[in-house]
Amino acid sequence: MPALAPVVVGTRPLSAQEVVAVAREGAPVALSAEALAEIAASRKVVEALADDVEPHYGVSTGFGALATRHIPLERRAQLQRSLVRSHAAGSGPEVEREVVRALMVLRLATLATGRTGVRAETAVVYAEMLSAGITPVVREYGSLGCSGDLAPLAHCALAAIGEGEVRDADGVLRPAAEALAAAGIAPVVLAEKEGLALINGTCGMLGMLLLACADLRRLLRTADLAAAMSVEALLGTDAVFAPDLQALRPHPGIADSAANLRAVLADSAIMASHRTPACTRVQDAYSLRCAPQVHGAARDTLAHAEAVAGRELASAVDNPVVTADGRVESNGSFHGAPLGYVLDFLAIAVADVASVSERRTDRFLDVARNHGLPPFLADDPGVDSGHMIAQYTQAGIVSELKRLAVPASVDSIPSSAMQEDHVAMGWTAARKLRRAVDGLARVVAIELLTAARAIDLRAPLAPAPATGAARDRLRAAVAGPGPDRYLAPEIEEAVRLVASGEVLAAAEAVTGPLR
């Protein structure tokens, strides 16, 4: 397998794709010459303040509510070490490797702007750790979203100074000092302001937002595919997806979703079979007819979240910052509200897309609504239960997604002796969004599995080429209708095909790229 090209972290903002490449694909990282020059220039500003009798936050003072304490020169290196050690206070399960790598490369991107005052060698260690596949152990709990993701970032900084635990490139848990030595990386000895610069940012929230957006771009197209298969197999109509009807309400996400449904349903013999005067159905149920409205609203929500993420990628988040004209200024840019809001907003959209998917699945199982299919799509109803309990699984997930849609960003618990008296809870919003995205993939997978079974039961009528291709990709891994089988492995295989994008790719091989 060819080696991945390094992602160059420089003075320009990283793209979402570059962050995902580092986080998820393990791409190595390099710092540009321009970034190293900017870092060196801002470091001179910080060093010029080292002997200043005036207090400067993060350089010669304590932190948070202890900012009034002046720290003498001989204790300032200890100040930075103590900050990292004390703030590495996370608890709970380990955070996923891709999240930690995203967090680290985003912190490195802020260091590369030259607005934080770190030394070049400190930034280089982060690049070397990422390139060596060394991943600090970060715990689930510890961030309030202000001053950014303190505890998660502190665990990364702790590893950079050779303390704490990491996972090496093979995923083995090792002491940080041992893993760094094995990779030929010298631990950082922190100087003035560096500890603070390494931990004061919204990197964890942003990293999880970018990963979720990448997943949702694929999942929303897959939800369109699943909806199309359901419309087809439930003998619905595609007339409502016509461009002129959708243009009457010109939301871009709705237009894209409806276009996908039209493309996927094109040339369906099942659809053609009931386009006759004998068909007296006037309109389909909302879960079929309004699929573009629900999926489209989720798309527009995603577009808004991506716009916020883009602005955050262009930001230098630290406190204090070194300004372009050489001032060192305190600020509030570390507050996670902009990210917390959209993370919560996406969780709402995810819950609703999953909810409408479950409703379509349920229609297949009810003989009063499935237009001639057997009860629960069972081979021998009564002896066999078909997909009865698969819908229970969907319903349980959807119920959980509704709870995960309750906003985290409306909460605030004051901290640091009331110095930090309004916090964002953006990390919590990001963590629950990750769980929600996983739940959506599972719900959509069960709809696809059920719709594919229903399409098979409509034989000898043939599905559309695109839905047929998706059905065939499922059939390569999961058998078609028949007596009841052990269902859980089949659901998990469908989840894998959805999460990997393979079933979507099968349909897009017919339609071309969906929107």
TrEMBL record:
One GO BP annotation of this record: L-histidine catabolic process to glutamate and formamide
EC identifiers of the protein: 4.3.1.3
Reaction catalyzed: L-histidine = trans-urocanate + NH4(+)
Coarse class of the protein's main subcellular location: cytoplasm
Gene3D superfamilies, alphabetized: Fumarase/aspartase (Central domain) (1.20.200.10), Fumarase/aspartase (N-terminal domain) (1.10.275.10)
Stored InterPro entries: Aromatic_Lyase, Fumarase/histidase_N, HutH, L-Aspartase-like, Phe/His_NH3-lyase_AS
Keywords linked to the UniProt accession: Histidine metabolism, Lyase
Superkingdom of source: Bacteria
An annotated GO cellular component: cytoplasm
Location(s), subcellular: Cytoplasm
Family: Belongs to the PAL/histidase family.
Protein name: Histidine ammonia-lyase
GO molecular function: histidine ammonia-lyase activity
Organism: Pseudonocardia kunmingensis
Keyword Lyase assigned: yes
